[in-house]
Amino acid sequence: ALPHQQTLRATMDWSYELLPEPERMLLNQLSVFAGDFSLEAVESIFIGNNETKTNTLDLLTALVDNSLVVVQEGNIETRYQLLETVRQYALEKLTENGETDTVRDRHLDYYLKLTEEAEPKLRSAEQLIWLNRLETEHDNLRTALEWSLGRDDAEVCLRFTGAGWFFWGMRGYSKEGSRWLKAALEKPGAEKRGAARAKALTGLAYMARDQSDIPASQNAAEEALAIWHEVEDGWWLAFTLGRIGSNLLIQGDLIGARRIQEEAVQIAREV
Predict the structure, then answer these.
(1) pLDDT at residue 17 is higher than 70
(2) How far is it, in rounded angstroms, from Cα 241 to Cα 236?
(3) Three-state DSSP class for residue 76
(4) Which pTM does this prediction carry?
(5) Nearest-CA neighbor of 267 among 241, 249, 247?
(6) Backbone dihedral region of 252: left (phi > 0), alpha (psi from -120 to 50 degrees) or beta?
(7) What pLDDT, on a 0 to 100 scale, did the predictor assign at position 49?
(8) 44-82 in b/e burial notation, b at 16+ Cβ within 10 A?
(9) What is the 8-class DSSP label of residue 82?
């Protein structure tokens, strides 16, 4: 390495060795975050040991005091961030300790739950609040999604993308959303027919429509519709029918569009 790089590495080594073991553990595990993160997220991913008696906030504060974590004061909550040099160093240590998979799985679990919690809120009076929250967490959502695609569990990918597409559509990320949805639907095991696949297909139908790909939108919506009939979910059945009806309208089939939309309205009123 160049001399100045050797000096930087030596400085990082020196700072790291001065930390108590619980603080080292937390610093290593913070390296899985992309961009900034909340205290709640930190508490969800931190894995301590029997010697970790101090609470997570105290450990995080100690890392801030040692200039290893940066504080960002916001209007709603305080957020934290690692400088990229520190993050890369900590990620090396996490990898050396063989903890990467475990911590990234916990990171994925937290952001999957957050996205699933947000989904119904995006169809409520709290829509703007949750859109802004997901926007704030977007880098971490992307990181968690990328990790999920490399795991064996197709169901998790489908759940994540199925819950996330409302956000992508409302905030103008249709192309990105389509890429995530297609990747999830193409994973081995994703062909299993169930609500998770149907929700992702419905999302793909909406994303494709936003990009004016009506045939792709219609194919995805029709497969989703068949599954919603099988699982007997009236809300999503009506919602997906609405997409099919709108596609027919765009294609100039006014009679077919009206028939489908009237069916959607009838089911929607029932539920």
Answers:
(1) yes
(2) 8
(3) coil
(4) 0.91
(5) 241
(6) left
(7) 57
(8) bbbebeeebeeebeebbebbeeeebbeeeeeeeeebbbb
(9) -
